[in-house]
Structures are given as structure tokens and as C-alpha cells.
Fold this sequence. Notes:
alpha+beta, Jann2411-like fold, two-stranded antiparallel sheet, 6 helices, 6 strands, 12% strand, binds zinc ion
Amino acid sequence: MNRPASERHCLTPAPGGLGLVQELLNTAPAERPGRPDVPDLLADGALGAAQEWADQAVRDWARETGRADARLTLTEEDLPKLRCLRDQVRRALGAGDRGGDAVRFTSAPVVVGLAGDGTLTLEPEGAGARWLASAVLAEALLAQASDVWRRLKICRNAPCAAAFYDRSRNNSGVWHSVRGCGNAAHVRACRERRRVQA
Ligand SMILES: [Zn+2]
């Protein structure tokens, strides 16, 4: 299985290393139109599910970014830190809070490397939640520099809030699925209009 968290929303992954940021966001619990809800993959007491997610997400990231295999080992203490990071990245994308701790600033060390062929790389540092924060912030920085960060969005349907990569030409998408969340919102709006008229 590829991109295990985003797969729950049937999403096409964001390109390259940005897919790791999308994966972190999509570990959040969500309601899916017409389908069962999905649980938080980073919930306390569910380290097994979190580790399984991390194994696959980090392997996908290594493959997408042309690295040798990377591995991330999580502990119970990492889980609240990762949920906090997830909330902060969500806020950075302009989406509302989901009741997480309000953190104003997160920092993580990265190593900037210059290879013999002239290629510059950003390598995550640390272990556990700190390593993931380092990788996610580095990918967000690269995405901002190449102007694709604005294409990573949170679905406007609040109970869903899936993170999707907007591939529309004018970057105008607001729903992760127009047929699912877009249609559900349309039906709600029609019902509300009828209620007001009545
Ligand atoms: Zn949605």
C-alpha cells in the first residue's frame, strides 16, 4: 500500500517529498461522505498503527526523493508531539484549528549538503517526532521555494478536512473530492436555502 493515510481518502499523492507533509496531515481522524469515518492514526495508545503508518510513509518519501531507505522509530511520547506538528502545519495552510495546542513556533535542525555533482540536499536530523518535524519542515520549505506549497490544501468540508494537492490549472480547488465533499456541501446549502424560504 502506498501513502497509507492519503489512501483513506482515495487521494492522488502530492508530488515528490511534499507527499510526506500531505501524509502527516491525513493521519487526522475524518468523516468521509457516504463511507465510514477514519480514525486518528496518531492516537494515544495506538503506537502500532502509528508505527505502521510511519514505516510506509517514510519509505514512500525516501523513494520519491531518491534516497536510500530511511526509517523512523516512534515511541508513545512522540504521538502528542506529532499531533501538535500536524495541527500547526494545518494552520500554516490556512485551515482552522481542531482543538490542538496552539504552538506559535516550531523549529527542527536539518543538514544542508552539497554533493560532488553540485546537487544541494536538505537532510532531516534527530530521531522520532523530531526527525519527522525536520523532514516535514524541510519539505515545506522546498515546496514554498518552488511555489507549489499553495497547492497543498485542506478540504473545505470541515468534518473531512483531507489534505489534497490541487492540480487544477488556476489552483481554484476547495474540495478534496468534488463529487463527494463538494456535492455534500451543495446539498446542505440547497436544504438551508429551502429552510430559510419556508
Ligand atoms: Zn473532503
